[in-house]
Amino acid sequence: MNAFIVDRYKSKEGLHYGDMPEPTLQENDVLVQVHATSVNLLDSKIRDGEFKLILPYKLPLILGNDVAGVVVRVGAQVKHFKPGDEVYARPDKNRIGTFAEFISMNERDVATKPTTITMVEAASIPLVGLTAWQALVERANLQKGQKVLIHAGSGGVGTIAIQLAKHLGAFVATTTSTANVDLVKSLGADVVIDYKKDTFDTILRDYDVVLNSLDGETLEKSLRVLKPGGKLISISGPPDPAFARELGAPWFVRLVMYALSYTIRQKAKRRGVAYSFLFMKASGSQLAKITSLISSGAIRPVIDQVFPFEATKEALAYVESGRAKGKVVVQVR
């Protein structure tokens, strides 16, 4: 089958088009014909080897972390899907590979595609939707009336997180550039900080939760806007000891993560707030809950551009440029 492959980390060729064997089907797997996939910064980080300590992939590796498509075959033990079903998913971190014509996934990671949106729109949702859900619902336990700051509100995670937070009844602040102020307001943001004009940490105070997806400087400034007992959740690092334990990482990796996050954890402790790193997990059951929110109109996909399959490499370069509003989708079929 045709796919976009990484042969060697940080090579000049990087991601390239090639032929790979069709994935094998285990007894709890569904084989999905990929209709659309979307591009995430996670893809470029994996391509460059940034996660090789915690995600030791065997090369050559097919990239891609989002899929919408049609089930073509099922394993002997599959209970919830059959050939012909339209589905979407974020594959398990150890079984990525959606930049391809087919992907095999455990059925527990898959959900039925919302009927109210297209394959292209559905492909934009899983990774960012699950990230927002696991940060705001699972980790933060965000409640009605609480205040949350969502950084990079016009990005892939930000556009979904704003809508989810509003659905939960929270008061939402976000940071974005001048060009995207109207977009984040249309998604429900109550306070918009234009980072080209203002500094968020001099304006916002007494927030319950901050969701960070930006750099270390933004992470440290975010501590200042939280009230005692608040939660700082970062999806851009640094990874912390709790994540290392969750991974079952070897001792030297646990030591590295302890050291990397030591400063921010200590600063958070001094301010009476909690810091945690979130690396989202695949979950078909959580994705089904997100499906309900899409079907009811509480969450809508936000798509910047759609690229043809043969231009997957260009789509990744566009995402890396930082100019995308919402998601960038690749139409495979």
Number of domains: 2
**What's the oligomerization state?**
single chain
| SS content category | alpha/beta
Mean pLDDT: 96
The ordered H/E elements are EEEHEEEEEHHEHEHEEHEHHEHEHE
Helix content: 25-40%
Number of contiguous helices: 10
The CATH architecture of the largest domain would be Alpha-Beta Complex
In total, how many beta strands?
16
Architecture overview:
There is one protein chain. By secondary structure, the chain is an alpha/beta fold. The protein has 2 domains: 2-125 and 301-331, Medium-chain alcohol dehydrogenases, catalytic domain (Quinone Oxidoreductase, Chain A, domain 1, Alpha-Beta Complex), CATH 3.90.180; 127-277, 3-Layer(aba) Sandwich (Rossmann fold). The protein is built from 10 helices and 16 strands. The strands form 3 sheets. Strands 3, 5, 6, 7, 8, 15 and 16 form a 7-stranded mixed sheet that branches. Strands 11-10-9-12-13-14 form a 6-stranded parallel sheet, with helices on both faces. Strands 2-1-4 form a 3-stranded antiparallel sheet, with no helix packed on it. β10 (171-176), α5 (181-186) and β11 (191-194) form a beta-alpha-beta unit. α3 crosses α4 and α7 (241-247) packs antiparallel against α8. The relative contact order is 0.16. The mean pLDDT is 96. Residues 10-330 form the Enoyl reductase (ER) domain. It comes from Fibrella forsythiae. InterPro entries: ADH-like_N, ER, GroES-like_sf, NAD(P)-bd_dom_sf, Quin_OxRdtase/zeta-crystal_CS, YIM1/Zinc_Alcohol_DH_Fams. Keywords: Oxidoreductase.
